[in-house]
Write a structure and sequence with these properties.
The complex is a heterodimer of chains A (203) and B (155). With 203 residues, chain A is mainly alpha-helical. Helices cover 86% and strands 0% of the residues of chain A. Chain B folds into two domains: 56 residues, no CATH class; 60 residues. The chains are: A mainly alpha (203), B mainly alpha (155). Chain A: This is Cytochrome bo(3) ubiquinol oxidase subunit 3.
């Protein structure tokens, strides 16, 4: 009798595990198609990379040290989320909470810097209606920023999930999906700082 | 049993650290090149190749060391999906750029994005002959020429 009970428990765990795996793979497919959205924005940006009209020129407005700090905030948040995932696999709830909180603060720092940067640009007259360049600039960079914001909201929701149910199978799956989301944001940012900021500062 | 397999496929701090250190180095190489002017003597194509190369390497590093797509029971599916996406992204970005570059050259050359000197000179002589303009107008600055070119296109 107890053998059967154990076997059933095992089977259920296995099923849960498989279901989680399918969800994580499905989420990866979603993120990959999100990458196609970013590809269209990158393509638009490249086409209009020289279409400044008479408006403000990016070379005078881009501050590379500022962008470098943004880049490192996002890179650090990527590695701290990785540490959170290590704690997930060790089923250490306190560790998950700690690293998730650090990731959240780093992501928030990134968003605050980006909002400040946009405010400065708009103050200098580089609004999204100024030229095709600035339209495609804001479309690309702010879409990334909106994704980061949604990642932060999701992380805040994870704290609520964790305090209610702890590290159960569902929450582990959610954290695995969020990890794909968060790491992909850093991957997209690599493209953004290379194409928009570094090449913009050189041209 | 299933928990054990779960554990063995779990990420390790060491792997994350390798990915992180490589990413930091690649980021510093990219920013240093612009901020410290390492590439000042390089041609534009070489500069673009340098930055694109660094970005592609860093994206690969993060996919391997942060996302662990090549590990676990779903590795084959993950890798197939990623290669398919890479293929689509290449078509979207390079295809758009290539198409628009040619459109720009063939159709919108007068809007100031692409100024091809010999084409402009050719247009100058053609427009001077066809419209019987005086020498001064024929030697007008490029924006005047482009207006004439637009006029020619309409004919």
């Amino acid at each position: 009798m107890s053998d059967i009970a154990i076997n059933t428990a095992h089977a259920m765990e296995e099923e849960h595990h498989d279901e989680g795996r399918v969800k994580v793979y499905g989420f990866l497919v979603y993120i990959l198609q999100d990458l196609l959205l970013f590809a269209t924005f990158f393509a638009t940006f490249l086409v209009f990379a020289g279409s400044y009209d008479a408006g403000p020129f990016p070379k005078q407005l881009i501050s590379l040290p500022f962008v470098m700090v943004e880049t490192f905030l996002l890179l650090f948040s990527s590695i701290t989320y990785g540490f959170a995932m290590v704690q997930v696999h060790r089923s250490n709830l306190a560790g998950v909470r700690l690293w998730l909180a650090i990731t959240f603060l780093l992501g928030l720092g990134f968003i605050c810097m980006e909002v400040y940067e946009f405010a400065e640009l708009i103050h200098e007259g580089a609004v999204w209606t100024a030229s095709a360049y600035w339209s495609s600039f804001f479309a690309l960079v702010s879409t990334h920023g909106i994704h980061v914001t949604f990642g932060l909201i999701w992380m805040a929701c994870m704290f609520a999930h964790l305090s209610r149910k702890g590290l159960n199978a569902h929450n582990k799956t959610r954290l695995a999906c969020l990890s794909i989301f968060w790491h992909f944001l850093d991957i997209v940012w690599v493209g953004v700082f290379t194409v928009v900021y570094l090449m913009g500062a050189m041209s | 049993m299933s928990m054990e397999t779960y554990e063995t496929h779990g990420p390790s701090v060491g792997k994350y650290m390798i990915g992180f250190i490589l990413s930091v180095i690649l980021t510093l190489l990219a920013f240093g090149a612009v901020m410290l002017g390492w590439l000042d003597g390089w041609s534009l194509n070489l500069k673009v190749a340098y930055f694109a190369g660094l970005a592609i390497i860093q994206i690969a590093v993060q996919m391997i060391f942060f996302l662990h797509l090549g590990e676990g029971p779903d590795a084959k599916w993950n890798i197939t999906s990623v290669w398919f996406t890479v293929f689509c992204v290449f078509i979207i970005i390079y295809g758009t750029w290539w198409t628009m570059q040619h459109l720009n050259y063939q159709v919108m050359g007068s809007n100031g994005r692409v100024a091809v000197v010999d084409q402009i000179q050719q247009l100058r002589s053609v427009s001077a002959q066809e419209t019987n303009l005086s020498e001064e107008t024929a030697a007008a600055p490029a924006d005047m020429v482009s207006e004439q070119e637009e006029g020619l296109n309409r004919q």
